[in-house]
Structure formats: structure tokens, C-alpha cells
Amino acid sequence: MSDDWKKTNRTRQILAAAEEGKYGVIAAIAYNLEQILGLVRAAEQARSPLILQFFPWAITFSDGLLVRTGADAAHRASVPVAIHLDHAQDESLIRHAADTLPFDSIMVDMSHYEREENLRKTKELVAYCHARQISTEAEPGRIEGGEDGVQDTEGLLASMTTPEEVDAFIATGVDALAPAFGNIHGEYGPAGPTQLDYERLDAIREQVGGRVRLVLHGTNGFPPDVMRRCIAAGLSKINVNKLSLDDYYAHLKERVGTAPHTTIIEEGIAKVTAQTVEWMEICGSAGKA
Ligand SMILES: [Zn+2]
């Protein structure tokens, strides 16, 4: 099989440029149309690349409609926007998504399996996605916690990524790795993400040696300096959820019942755009598209 598609795959192109330019690209979750529009408008306003992400929930609740809508918005955008499936944990859903939906990349998340099984399944699914010109991401180790829209993995022990695991995962052919270095899904608590293990992150990056891109998960409540530190450590795909959606939810809370629905929608889109532009500036991707 020819690997030529890898040169034009949108996610790969966006992340290769980010790693080269030493900036981070926001990979933001969208749960609805307002958020899709708000995120794409942020990318256009900031002249930044963007990765628009969906959880498997976005496929199942609407039979893929939200994903196809996101792809339509991405393809019409005046800056590079890739469509990514985050935390796909179900093998049949991954095959269905790769076969029928316009994803540029898929996170093949088999981290709920024990290591050998995780590696075997990852390798098989990476090949399946690559055969359909879709690039991939995997999670060596296990990031703690859960997010709205991801299958519950409660009860599974989190485990930090080791540099030894990195080689085993790269051998699966995967395009990007999401290391567990103290980052968690969900909330860090009042002190913020103080438990991040930067030494481990440095060791992982050294072991990776530029062979695959590195992805940051679990950024809820990150202050800008922590974000910049993570990007300086070589993480180029920056998954965000609440960092781009907090203001939107606060807006709904305040305005529902007091303003016309169309106004609430338009103002909500503007909230997502404004908050996301700020993070694009912090991550250094603004002006790079
Ligand atoms: Zn995640």
C-alpha cells in the first residue's frame, strides 16, 4: 500500500507544521452546531489551523449528522481544519466511522485493555484506518478520569506512560501518541494541574525522537503558563473541552428564558469564538494559517 496519502492527510499536515514551528494546535470538542461554528470562526479570525473533534457520542446520537456537518464547515473554512474522532474505544464503531464518515484522523483508544491486548488491537485498527487514508492516535498508559461523551472507564487504574511503552506503540504504525504524565480528564481541583510530571514528559519526547506527534489530553482549568510549558515540552495537538466551551455554558445559563432563541444561538457562537481565539494566541498557532 502506498503511503502517499500521508503527505496530504489534513491532521498529519497540521501537526507536522505545528511540531516544526514549535506551537500547539487546538483540538476542540464540539457537541453541537453552535460550537462547530464558533470553533471554525475562531480559526478563521485568528488565522490558525484547527482540529475539530467529536466523541463517539456525536456519531451514535445523530447517526453521524453532527460529524458530516463539522466536515462541511471544515471544508468551507479559509484555514486548514481537520476532523478528528476522539477516544474511540469501540472496535466496531471505529470501523463504522472509518468506512462511512469524513474523519481525517481517529484516536484508536484501546487503553481500557491490558497492554498486550491494547497493542494488538491498536495495530489492527491503525492498519484499518490507514487503508482508508485516515491517520491515528493512541494512548500508551492510561489517562485518569472521564469526559462527557466518552464511555465510562471508571474502576480502571490510571498508569503513567513509560519511555519503554513508546517504542511498542510506535511499532503499531500509529501517527500520534497521547502520553499519561499526570494529566487527567475532568477537573484538577483548586490547586490546578500541579502533579504534571514534566521529567517524564521530557523522557517520553526524547524516546519518541520525532517519529510521531505528541498529544495533550486533560486540559480543563489549565492556566496559560502550564499550557505554554507543555507546548515547549513538544506536545503539538492540544485537546481542549472546557477551555473553549466554559463561556458558552455560562452564557446559556444566563440567557435562556430571557432572550430570543436566535439571539442566544448567535451570542453563544460568539462566546465560543472569543474564548478559542484566546487559546489559539496562547498556544502560538494564531497567524500560522
Ligand atoms: Zn482525552
TrEMBL record:
Pathway assignment: Carbohydrate degradation; glycolysis; D-glyceraldehyde 3-phosphate and glycerone phosphate from D-glucose: step 4/4
Alphabetical list of Gene3D superfamilies matching this protein: Aldolase class I
EC number: 4.1.2.13
The UniProt record lists the keyword Lyase: yes
Catalytic function, reaction form: beta-D-fructose 1,6-bisphosphate = D-glyceraldehyde 3-phosphate + dihydroxyacetone phosphate
Cofactor annotation comment: Binds 2 Zn(2+) ions per subunit. One is catalytic and the other provides a structural contribution.
Keywords: Glycolysis, Lyase, Metal-binding, Zinc
Cofactor(s), by name: Zn(2+)
InterPro entries xref list: Aldolase_TIM, Class_II_FBP_aldolase, FBA_II
Listed PANTHER family: D-TAGATOSE-1,6-BISPHOSPHATE ALDOLASE, D-TAGATOSE-1,6-BISPHOSPHATE ALDOLASE SUBUNIT GATY-RELATED
Protein family: Belongs to the class II fructose-bisphosphate aldolase family.
Function: Catalyzes the aldol condensation of dihydroxyacetone phosphate (DHAP or glycerone-phosphate) with glyceraldehyde 3-phosphate (G3P) to form fructose 1,6-bisphosphate (FBP) in gluconeogenesis and the reverse reaction in glycolysis.
Name the UniProt record assigns to this protein: Fructose-bisphosphate aldolase
